[in-house]
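Hi,

I'm pasting everything inline rather than attaching a file, because the server keeps stripping attachments. The sequence lines come first, and each chain or strand is labelled.
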Amino acid sequence: MLKAAGRDWHGRLSLGLLLAPALLWLGALIVLPHVELAVLSLRERIGPRLYAASLAQYETFFLEPLYWHVFVRTALMSVIATMLTLLLAFPIAWVIAKLSSGKASSLLFILCLIPFWVSETVRTLGWMILLRESGVLPALLVKLGVTRVPVELLYHDATILVGLVYTSLLFMVIPLISSLESLDNTLIEAAYDLGANGFAILRTIVIPHAAPGITAGCIVVFMLTLGNYLTPTLLGGKNSQWFTEQIYTQFITRFNWEEGAAFGFLLLGLSTAMVVCGLKITGQRFGDVMRRT
Amino acid sequence: MSTADLVATSVSKRFADHVAVDDLSFSVERGSFFSILGPSGCGKTTLLRMIAGFIAPDGGDIAIGGSSMRNIAPNRRPVNMVFQQLALFPMMSVGENVEFGLARRGVARAERVKRSHAMLERVGLHGSAGKRVDELSGGQRQRVAIARSLVLEPTLLLLDEPLGALDLKLREHMKIELKQLQSAFGTTFVYITHDQSEALVLSDHVGVMSHGRFEQLGTPQDLYYRPQTPFVAGFVGANNRIVGRATAKSGGVVEMTTGDGWIIHARSHGEIAVGDAVEGFVRPEVASLGRGPQELPTNQPVHSGHVQSLLFDGANSAVLLREDRTRREFRIALPQTGQFSDLKPQERVLFSFDPQRAVCYPARPAAVEADA
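And the predicted assembly:
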């Protein structure tokens, strides 16, 4: 009995030691700052160096239309960007997983990966060189006679979406490839043999099989997009109105850490709510989905 | 020809460096069970996939139910296939699997459910419609795969070695079940297999395929008792194969001598002249075994050998001998009387066979080289 208990204790100790770095990281860098931010967001300055617990920060958010307009707009744009990424990534993943084999398949995958060797800032600046009024694409449009004078292609919602989709593509392609690769080709043949056309096969066989991969990709892309700061700021300029910019402004420009912390929590709440809704609508479980990524 | 459900005319298919199906013509009668039997790589899967429509033939035509299938996609052919790995849809229930084809045809939901339930009942899976595919046993899945196809009332049901993945006991059982299902539904079955016992037990007609051609097309009895080529004689059923040269000829019987001087007699098949290389075949159950000459039938040439090993397999038990002069292996089926149950390895025995029931063919070029 004593011996068994001793062994059990040893087991727990080694498990604890193995988990220690992860727990330390999680505790020091994620949980602690969030607790601090939560406390910050729930107080109000009532005098010099004098604070009281209050919900005033959250109240400001709901009373000031600009704040929640930007909030809703960020959420909608992120959903649109996620859907566009899915639509674009699905055919790419299909070609890599099903239509090409061996060398060709790895080559195509590397082609998807290569842009990510360059930092996000440089990539986004690349888009600016292409799209700004004096840039490559407007000049080309003039040369082709499409427009008379160079047009400004930056600072539109569409430009932001292009940038976001481009940044997120790989994170959608990877889970899609792995879920499509595990789809047995004879299932597709069997469905074809039983009278299904291409669309019916996609709807009844491919999508249900790939659903966990699709959901995983959507969750990752949605979170990355919602929390993206660089791309909307650079490509959207002043028009971007992205919620992360509001957080930045509160913390850095306005030096209002209380309001910034409240915004941070609102964003966290939003992404959690959207993910939960997405899982509910598609009838999936978080654990199943995460195993696919 | 009006009663043929499947007519293939000069069908051929060539892949980069080899001919998979070579100018093949045959027809399958309505309501019959037709098997294509051949070793792996003989082109039988290619042929089946051409019938299903997954591969287009390079030449020739396939007609199903009287109409040509040229340029008709798999989902528009009156043909359904039972895949080797069954390919049941794991994301659907058993009932949804069976309803799948009906739904694609736009059959109303209530009617679909009614028909799939009726079909599941006919294959002995009453009440399984709500189950998940992975809750079923191997044999039950097999039946779902067949039900899923038959509910569409196809002109032709194709089966691609569907018993290959099952264990032996279940395979024997499913063999009988398949045969019963086919006669109950009356659908024309085209079955491909490399297992000669499956082909012999199940089929009305069998095509033995090798290198993209049919070596012989006939009833199982034809193939077993009247093989037309040495390939069929060697592939269908157990056979002792002996290679040599024809040294004499009288009536329909050839005297052949092996390279090491063993002389046997066999009925000749095809044109054989004295001096030709020949391949002879003697089935294990054709030869008689005896400890003395008085135990053997009279008027048959007697050979002697030593027991090398006893192959006990119930009703299929046999003894493996080595012929005394040449040390060649020769297999003889043991009679069910138990007469030789006390046979021991190294024991000397005599054996003989009726030359009319052994057969020899002009040797295939490859066969002579292999033996020399």
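Chain B is about 25% helix and 35% strand.

If the labels don't parse on your end, tell me and I'll reformat.
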